Amino acid sequence: MVGLLLGMLTVLVITQVLAMSEGKKRTIASGSDAQTNGALALYTLQRELQMAGYGLANKPEALGCPIEGTYKATGSPAVSEAFAATLAPIVITDGASGAPDRLTVLQSRKNGFSVPIVVSAQSSDNFTVLSSLGAQAGDLMIAVPNPWSTANPCRLFSVTDDGLGSTSNTGLSPLRVPHAEGGNPSWNDNTKLALSTAGYLLNLGSLGFSEFSIGGNQSLQVTTRTATAPSATSDLFPQIVNLQALYGKDTNNDGVVDTYDSTTPLNNVQWKQVLTVRIAIVARSTQYEKSLADESDAVTQKEPLWDLGASSTIAGAEDCHGGSKCLVLKIDQVPDWRHYRYKVYDTIIPLRNVLWNTAS
Question: Where are the beta strands (DSSP E) in the chain?
Fold first, then answer.
């Protein structure tokens, strides 16, 4: 009996040790997964934002122009999808009351190079240009009116070519960029293109349009739009529960960022002030950590903070970390949020296409 009792006590102790060890192992492993997801999510956003504005920032006076277009494709089913965006490297859609933001990135994905094309004359199905250098049939372009406005927006169209060169009004040539209707798929609506005289054309090539957001399944998602396909949404990295972003603005035009905020620029002057973007990502571990009924020993007692530095003047920031200013990163929308561990990743990303153009 004594031996049986000792054996049972030994088994009980070993079981408790193994359970505790396995719990610690799962916590460490899930923490490592969260770090990987957060680091990869941050890298993906950084890579996209560094290329934001390529082919668009060459003409800073176009920044802020509203873009309109309609993608049409015959088939089963037929597709007709309106496209609306702002001609800007990045647009931050601020989440209400600390909810995750959305980042919309626009860039040219023209192979080789993308340079503005100056328009000298315009007809119903083509632009006469000073040089069509770089233009190819199938390229998606933006016709920028001079001047542009909300009532006179930029228009999307696709370059066409009947193969007859300069002998035809609809043949792509060194001095002509045609946009005939009737192709499949097509972005061409010549009645809208004829509404105003274009000052120049911006070549997007295959179009780089990506919108990053946090999905309902707590993952980083991207919605993409290409020149030859309607928009599509896909998951990138799981367990990303918040995404916050701020514009870095040079308000006195000295080439140095003076302030960070989430206020969307309202005009061309304000868009030209945006030189950098500061982002923060919150990654969550997958390990559910138990606690007492009153959650007094929950592993996460407070929502994480985004440290913005001692000199920050961002609205809503509070004192933290012995002199710094911090923003609270909302995670209480996550079910049982106190029972998980979190990691904050943040960085400042220069919009190099804007900076290079400013420097020149």
Answer: 66-73, 79-86, 90-93, 102-107, 117-122, 126-129, 140-145, 154-158, 176-178, 198-205, 208-214, 219-226, 229-238, 240-249, 259-261, 274-284, 305-309, 318-320, 324-328, 342-350
Residue 214 CB partners (closer than 8 Å, separation 6+): 100, 220, 221, 240, 241, 242, 243
**pLDDT, tens digit, for every residue of 206-215?**
888 999 999 9
CA distance 22 to 15: 10
Distance CA 32, CA 285 (A): 8
Residues 6+ apart with CB under 8 A from 32: none
- Residue 58 identity (one-letter amino acid): N
Residue 28 has pLDDT above 60, yes or no: no
Contact criterion met (CB below 8 Å) for 31 and 38: no
Q: Going by DSSP bridges, is the β-strand pair 66-73/240-249 parallel, antiparallel, or unpaired?
A: unpaired
Question: Is residue 318 pLDDT above 70, yes or no?
Answer: yes
Residue 301 burial (10 A CB sphere; 0-12, 13-18, 19+):
exposed
Q: Which region among 137-146, 221-230, 255-264, 297-306 has the lowest average model confidence (pLDDT)?
A: 221-230
What are the tokens at 308?
């913005």
Contact 205, 109 (CB under 8 A): yes
Per-residue pLDDT reduced to its tens digit, 333-348: 888 899 898 999 999 9
For residue 157, the tally of other CB atoms under 10 A from its CB is 25
